[in-house]
Predict the structure.
Amino acid sequence: MKTKKTILNIVSKVIFLSFLTLFFVKCDDFASDTEGELIADNIFNSKSAVETAVLGVYSPLADKLFSNSEAYTHLWAADDRTAVTGSNKAEFLEYDQLTPLNTNAKMERTWALLWEMVGAANTVIDATEEIKEVYRKEGDEEEALRPLGEVHYLRAMAYFELVRTWGEVPLLSSQKDVTGLEPLASFQDIYSLIIADLIFAKEGLGNNSVNGVYRANKWMAQSLLANVYLTTAGFPLKNTANYALAAAEAKEVMDVGVYSLENEFSGVMGNPENNLGNDGNTEAIIAFPANKILDGWNAGNYQAEAIAFGDKTVEFAFFNNFPAGKRKDFTFNTPPGKRPKYSKFGPAWAGGPAFDDDILYMRYAELLLIYAEAQIQATGNNADADALAALNRVKARAGLPTVPSATWQDVVWEKAWETAGEFTRWYDIVRTETLDEVNALRDAKDNELTPLGNGLTEANPWALIPANDVAANPNLAK
């Protein structure tokens, strides 16, 4: 059971600095651990040791959790992507056709990496008092809130991915007394931990990232919290009071003026000069750096499947319904007589068969649309001036006419087009319970090329927990 091994191993030994991790931030930001591992009993004896431990929690992010499309096949269940047929595309097609198996190796790897992140975060959080004491002795105990805030933020991110992908999963808030036989927790309990973590993070983190531009700061935690509140207002929790909370968190980030829309789509993604490390993107809120030198042809950007191999294309209905204009032209390449392909993530084979563009996990355009939807839902007012201002900023950049009113459904579709092929569409379909509606829009060509099964349904859209883990822990069975 990979989950059990990951969790139990981290209790006594945490693997932190690796070749991948050193590339996640600048190599000179921290002193290297020359042995490549740190024993848990001794790691929290200095500020530099704490910083190294925190960096280790980021390690799964650098180890292809988001940086390679192969690990995130469940997103193919949405209508903004489809997989070409072929023997090595079977794991994409399982989700594209809504018939996933519990032996999907790519999803098993994603599952394991997320638990690795949870376990590493818990190891640090368990030492909270030790860490505060270290900072008290070396300066100011309040300074410890920043590294602890980063770790709570990262645990929240990992659990957010787990719960909205697999549904109910075990809830581990500590590494102490972990057996590997933990039961499934409720959606309410899991989201309560996520929200508590992000509130802690936004209060403890400063306004600016420390020790690298990709590191967590207050605005990143608060933006993610807005998305969590929006998600919990929909299926399965349907805690509609959280629409107002989502709007409030998003609005605070919007009002502070840290982020802004890029004037042109060419400035958003697809080129290394737009990476955060090059100070080239005002729109990136949460981003991860891709490093093409790490892993040969299979390295780097999450979007490599789209850029290099054409494995991630778009369903015909989604493309045909996509509003014409400069955003559509930027998003897709449409060879005559062939299925449209994504061009927004960069030119094919840019710099060789690997990619060093940032992976944008969350950007300002998405935050604007989170706010617009949440505000309309919270107020019940389709003509809410603030919501429309946010929505119309996105529409105006796309070259579309602004609107005097909009439903929440209008905003969700705008978000689908704005973030096509990114990280949002499947989760939006799930929380809004619109899978049946989306499937009814499918083009006959889509139904012919990738006929749908009924393994994933509107009422039960969750990925299957890997069979090996269920065999080792029967409490994971659903």
Notes: The longest helix spans residues 145-166. The beta strands are 13-15, 37-39, 82-83, 284-288, 312-313, 332-333, 341-342, 359-363. Residues 136 and 142 are 8 Å apart (CA to CA). The chain has one domain: 2-266+363-448+456-463.
